[in-house]
Amino acid sequence: MKNNSRILLIYTGGTIGMIKDYETGALKAFNFNELLQNIPELQILEHEIETISFEEPIDSSNMNPVYWIQIAEIIEENYDNYDGFVVLHGSDTMSYSASALSFIFENLSKPIIFTGSQLPIGDLRTDAKENLITSIQIAGLQKNGRPVITEVGLYFEYKLYRANRTTKINAEHFQAFASMNYAPLAESGVYLSVNHKALWKPNRKQKLKIHKHLNDEVLILKMFPGISESSVSHILSKKDLKGVVLETYGSGNAPNDKWFIELLREYVKKGVRIVNVTQCIAGSVMMGQYETSVGLKKVGIVSGKDITTEAAVAKLMYLLGKELSPNVFKTIFETSLRGEMS
Fold this sequence. Notes:
With 342 residues, the protein is an alpha/beta fold. The chain is 26% helix and 21% strand. Strand 8 (142-143) and strand 9 (146-147) form a beta hairpin. The model has no long low-confidence stretch (mean pLDDT 92).
């Protein structure tokens, strides 16, 4: 029996949607209404595919929370009519956008798969076709009439990852993304192999909730040897600042200079939410393990555990939109909501 899942393909912009004009050599935006003509392989797929595109495709470097909500609203409007969604997006900020969508959609029971490519779809050596075709197949996977994947995923170069666990690690290789703290959800080889143990289990009794209020008054403060009091003070004095992702060393360590700890204490008291994440691409924050993180714990810095910076930014915006008390914020941030931390 054929599995005719209905898949909605959402094109936001990025390299995957470019095609080369062989007369001029220039890249131009691809007309997604002609998708089936340009990628005849899609005709062979058993799924019913429809496409929708941003009116003006955007480079992913220009991506921001306004566009995240736009993607979410396209999915919301079409949620009941499709079995799965594939979002085509530029790779540079894909981990941020895909992480954000994972928090925007609560009690998701269908797949939202982000993908893109390092080379345009019209290039002879492109990785776009494989990424696109396999993403559609993954979004269409069903068992007993229900989607197999029920979370926001990111598919790139033969691997499907939980989106909010990913980081872009390479600007030149086809294998552009990694998920250092969580195993892939599926791998594509001769067969499509799904890691069922790693999948997010949906609560099907709960109705879908879509959280559209994000607060983007946040910044990332990255520690480096020699960072000065005047620099940190200047950064934290930003008007209307609500949240900080503090990128520390190793397992959550930072300078234990008195000025640094006192500055953090001052801003925590003012109600700024400060979250500690590690600069390392793998591993976890464990505040209090070393003397250089004891001070952070004492002044009320929130532990990001093994969350990525991208997911921390998205989760911070999401929770700041809820206007929670400091203790409730800390408890919820340190809890895994969508599988974003171990």
